[in-house]
Known about the structure:
Layout: E1 19-22, H1 28-39, E2 43-48, H2 51-62, E3 71-74, H3 82-96, E4 101-104, H4 120-146, E5 152-156, H5 169-188, E6 195-200, H6 207-212, H7 229-235, E7 246-248
Parallel strand pairs: 1-2, 1-4, 2-3, 4-5, 5-6, 6-7
Bound molecules: NADPH dihydro-nicotinamide-adenine-dinucleotide phosphate.
Amino acid sequence: MEFEAKDYEVRAGLLTDRIILITGATDGIGRALALRTAELGARVVLHGRNTKRLEKVYDEIEAIDGAVRPSIAVLDLATADSDAYTSLANSIEQEFGRLDGLVHNAGILGNRHSIEQYDPAEWQQVMHVNLTAPFALTQVLFPALKKSRNPSLIFTSSGVGRVGKAFWGAYSVSKFGTEALSQILSNENRHSGMRVNCINPGAVRTKMRLAAYPAEDRDVLKGPEDILAAYLYLLGPDSEEITGQSLDAQ
Length: 250
Ligand code: NDP
């Protein structure tokens, strides 16, 4: 049966004992997901590039009744070198011994120019943060993911990761690449119990959406906390057989 976000009933304790790393957990969808997964019993590793902003989310989780204390992983996806990735992976292995969920959520929009006008340096940066960094992070976290009984990886796609719309440039190409990376990983690990899926969040009221559509009426958009069902489904036990899919969060 096909997954329908609106029909999925999230139950208390759904993610108890799951260790889940969420990239870009300081704002928007990543922050909302971090709060919700912690509320559902997960031990969340909050990733971001800014310690102060990470500490703010950390404090918000600490204030949730019964939530497990989170951890913080600081790494700038635009500039991190291989030592920084290795040190992040080592600290997860040392602290937890495994990783059950990895949500590649962090991303940047870049400028909305035609391909003819697109600045090559900006192209590289968007491709790096949105596509190359998730590849590098996945690779370095493989040993910890393999130690989980049921590891789940989630990549974040977009409507423009499925249709190449005018003026979406590197962002769109990076999201097409994300869909491919997710499918390849899924197929390569189908028999190991590791599952890999994509989510297209749809239009969500965040700072990225505001940058893309500055004139839009924000009140008609769903908030990040309203679109989390697909993420929670894929991170928890109800989706144990699901891999290689690209789900719509709305
Ligand atoms: P936001 O801009 O609200 O949040 C982006 C997050 O990524 C922030 O935590 C940000 O950190 C982090 N980030 C950006 N660059 C880096 C970097 N170099 N290193 C580490 N972290 C970084 O975006 P959304 O919540 O809207 O988007 C989340 C995901 O959903 C993205 O992948 C986006 O492409 C996708 N998406 C969003 C849609 C929407 O309508 N909102 C629609 C379709 C897809 P910081 O706080 O430091 O800036």
